[in-house]
């Protein structure tokens, strides 16, 4: 089972979904997206902690897309 984090779960009006095999992998993809698309260069630890609590179990299906940090966006 994958781990899913949505931008909307963080209060952002964006349909992006980050998915990974582990919470850390999903969080890294979400941080890469936040930097590349939303222009957030510095993600404070309090926001990372809030994101960790928002991560859900999910079956993830690749949707493609550009991920400047490597791997696929889901």
Write the layout of secondary structure elements.
Layout lengths: L1 E5 L10 E4 L2 H16 L6 H10 L1 E3 L16
Antiparallel strand pairs: 1-2, 1-3
Task: Compute the CA-based radius of gyration.
Answer: 11 Å
How much strand?
Answer: 15-25%
**Order of SSEs:** EEHHE
Enumerate the strands of the largest sheet in spatial order, edge to edge or round the barrel: 2-1-3
- Low-confidence sequence ranges: none
Number of distinct beta strands: 3
Instruction: Indicate the structural class.
Output: alpha+beta
Helix content: 25-40%
Q: Helical element count?
A: 2
Quick one: biggest sheet?
3 strands, antiparallel
Through-space gap between termini? 14 Å
Task: Summarize the structure in words.
With about 70 residues, the protein is α+β, with helices and mostly antiparallel strands. The chain has one domain. It has two helices and three strands. A three-stranded antiparallel sheet has the order 2-1-3. The chain is globular and about 30 Å long. The mean pLDDT is about 85.
What's this, in brief?
The protein is of the alpha+beta class and 74 residues long.
